[in-house]
Write a structure and sequence with these properties.
It is built from seven helices and six strands. By secondary structure, it is of the alpha/beta class. It has one domain: Spore Coat Polysaccharide Biosynthesis Protein SpsA, Chain A. Strands 2-1-3-5-4-6 form a six-stranded mixed β-sheet. Strand 4 and strand 5 form a beta hairpin. The relative contact order is 0.18.
Length: 184
């Protein structure tokens, strides 16, 4: 299974490149690569050299399409760069769910949100490419309107994972709280 970190966003709410934020002494993107390496066979970063988004400025679906285009595996684990609280145990669990799912898309639903932590089969590439040429490129709408297998908060809790692992770093305040170890 290939792993991909999406790191091509504008980071507009953060005000600076999230991927380069210091995360306990190293860039956030390096932390995310190291965590994802524990659960996948190969990890690549999408959205910057040497693998820029094929269609820049089109949001996370463009990054997902780029990942699927270059992936050498059918099943892929795709994460946003700003989810530093994901753990090795969760990613190994999520990988096993991807491997056993009969669906082409696996997502977690936390409250009313779908964190950008997805299991995506390469066979979804044509459908994503069609979405990229439309006006509605919402990741939420794509997941909600698909036949995705959705892992709910109660399911994740039963498996031993709290929703707090999906906290992301969108603003300077999120970053300060998360990097200092403060509770949210």
């Amino acid at each position: 299974m290939n792993g991909f970190i999406l790191a091509g966003g504008k980071s507009s709410r953060m005000g600076r490149d999230k991927a380069l934020l210091d995360w306990h002494g190293r860039p956030l993107v390096a932390h995310m690569v190291q965590v994802l390496e524990t659960a996948t066979d190969e990890v690549r970063v999408v959205g910057r050299d040497p693998l820029p988004d094929r269609v820049p400025g089109r949001g996370p679906l463009s990054g997902i399409a780029t990942a699927l285009e270059v992936s050498s595996t059918d099943a892929n684990l795709i994460l946003a760069v700003d989810l530093p609280f994901l753990t090795k145990d969760f990613l190994l669990y999520f990988r096993s769910q991807i491997e056993t799912s009969s669906r082409r898309l696996l997502a977690c639903k936390i409250g009313s949100h779908f964190p950008l932590c997805l299991g995506v089969r390469k066979t979804l590439l044509p459908a994503i490419e069609r979405l990229l040429s439309s006006k509605d490129r919402s990741l939420y709408a794509w997941i909600a309107g698909s036949d995705a297998e959705i892992l709910s908060e109660p399911q994740l809790r039963t498996a031993g994972f709290e929703a707090s692992i999906f906290r992301n770093l969108n603003t300077p305040e999120d970053y300060e709280r998360g990097n200092s170890g403060s509770d949210w």
